[in-house]
Amino acid sequence: MRLPLAAPLVLSLVVLFAVVTRAADSAPLRAGAFAQDITPSLAQPSPINGGMKGAFAKTVTDPMHARSLAVQSGPTTLVFCIVDACMIPREICESAKALASRATGVPASHLLISATHSHSCATMTPVFQSEADPAYLTTLPARIAESIIRAHANLEPAEIAFGKASNSDQVFNRRWLVKDGGSYENPFDSLADRAWMNPGFQNPKVTGPAGPVDPEVSLLAARAKSDGRPLAILANYSLHYVGGLPAISADYYGAFAREVTARLSATDARYTGKPAFVAIMSNGTSGNINNVNYAAPPPPKRALGEQISLVAQSVADTALAAYQRLSWQAAAPVATAERDVTLAVRKPAPDELTRAQKIVATTKRDADGQFSDRKAIYALESLALAAYPATVPVKLQAHRIGALTIAAIPCEVFVEIGLDLKATKPLGEHFTISLANGYNGYLPTPEHHALGGYETWRARSSYLEVEASTKITATLRDLLTTVAK
Description:
Number of helices: 10
Shape: globular
Radius of gyration: 22 Å
Number of domains: 2
């Protein structure tokens, strides 16, 4: 199965609806987890996305997984499946959910599938000049579904807990404000942008970050009621990715999982024959956040993968400090709500298409057949967006487990949106999982759209209407209120 270049053409046919499962009274909890390997075979080099040019990996530094946590209370089951991927198309998510739902009886609307946003994983969503391997795509729905099915099969009486701790050492706002009178050129021949992504260390042309960060490491944890052994930890942190590896790698998300597993002695011989513990890191609202402090001088050069390990250790320290303070409960209400919202696509105007066609026709390609010229790369994106429909459905979810709510958005969500949802939470705690149930590009606020910058530049990585975040936030507030009842 090869996904069409303009995937939303298929999605435009989806009937929009809302699915709500309200919270019942507290019932005894069950939980189960499983990690399914989804690494490509590398019979040939695997496309990986995350850059402006399509890259190819010939080796595996560490494997890709689909890591799932299932939580059940009475008749209601939720499954969170976090996949080592840069982005996952909605079609893949829907296919995997259909397979898992048929096998488990859990409604598809109760399943959340999200990408971690590792920039060193096999391409699943075509963007910029990276195209997915069709043979690999055909294997993905079944392999992702297997993770959900096995987690569901591992359900056992359990206790759950949720908590948080702060780690401000690893998150920095990557958008900086351009000084008055200063400018830089964007790929559309404009000098009007006032925000500059990754401007370089101590760049004299910028004044300071254009927004805040969210330093919280949030946790949803499960342990077996019978013997207290750890079953799973689902963590959430608003860090875009770390990167730096030229091979297949799950980035710091995978390193975090290994670090937490080792420190909890979750492979202890006492647990032989029991389902394996699964540690999971999900991506929070990190659309404008990275791991680089541009206010400081350049850091010393590190060995390949060293920064990934350092970040994973640091965030594991924070997560496990929170873990030691958790209060466990054996019963809790569980609820979920899902809704598709229709949002407009920022399509190129006729004159912009004419410009794009001319640039593509006259710009020299590299020896690999790709463009290095940024204007040509964005011209290609304009041509791709011309085939998109005028509107697309965007799937939103809200889930509740006890006094914790979790929102799901299929975008690279700006941190201000996540902070706003946390501030307006209807219950005790909240976090948001980004890149969930599909991919609809960056989600800046209208204020950030006005500032311009990479995350707002029209492309398959950023195409929703300017007011998209306002509409999405309003819908999620309604869904969160619904599941809190």
